[in-house]
Fold this protein.
Amino acid sequence: MFKSKHNQMYLAVAVIAALAAPEKAVASAVTEEALAHLQLANRLVHSGKHEQAIAEYQAAYGLSPNGQIGLYSRKALVAYGINPDAAANSQAASEIQRQSNEAKLQAFQHSNDQIKTTERTAKSQIDRIESEKTAAVNDVIANPSIQYSVVPTYGYSLYRTPFGFRRYAPAAVVSTIDPVATQARIDGVNNRAQQLEKSVKEDAADKAERLKEAAQERARLIDESASNLQTQMSGKGVKLNPTGTNLYIRSYR
């Protein structure tokens, strides 16, 4: 980068001149960390370690681009022929992308967690339906449907009437299990349980689909926000300060 000692000395003088304001005057207006980078950069310039000084000026500018330390650091970088905004924009763009990916991952993880909760709830409901179905079927078996029939008995009896004696064959009423009706009741219990389980499964599937769509929409919005931030940092539209920029805190100038 530096072709001769003469150029190095010239740059050092230019940088120091750009930093003529006393550091104590700006100490209260910037963070201690930015000031530490600036002071280290100045010492490196005096030592002729320009590559390391540039890195420290960039760090100071990145921490306080709009403060006095940022102004001094910017002048120093410009004296070195470096555009400080380009590096800051690149770093901010990388950070925005990292935050975007992290936010999308969290959105999908949250969706998956909710889907798993929905599935567990549905399984619990189905288990309860199965338990109630088994109890209902057992109750039908223990109390089956009864059918009644009249069965004639052997022999006959006489009874007096105004017209004389008459005879009749006595009959008995017999109760037996009605297998058809009993099976119909069991089938009804099974059908009702099947319909309930179907409804639970459909509701769970619908909710899971809505959760997936919500996560996808959230990811789309995050991508859109990240793209807007990067566009604004490129100078199109509202100019966005790259330092401090993320998906949640935006610093405009």
Summary: The longest strand covers residues 146-152. Residues 69 and 222 are 33 Å apart (CA to CA).
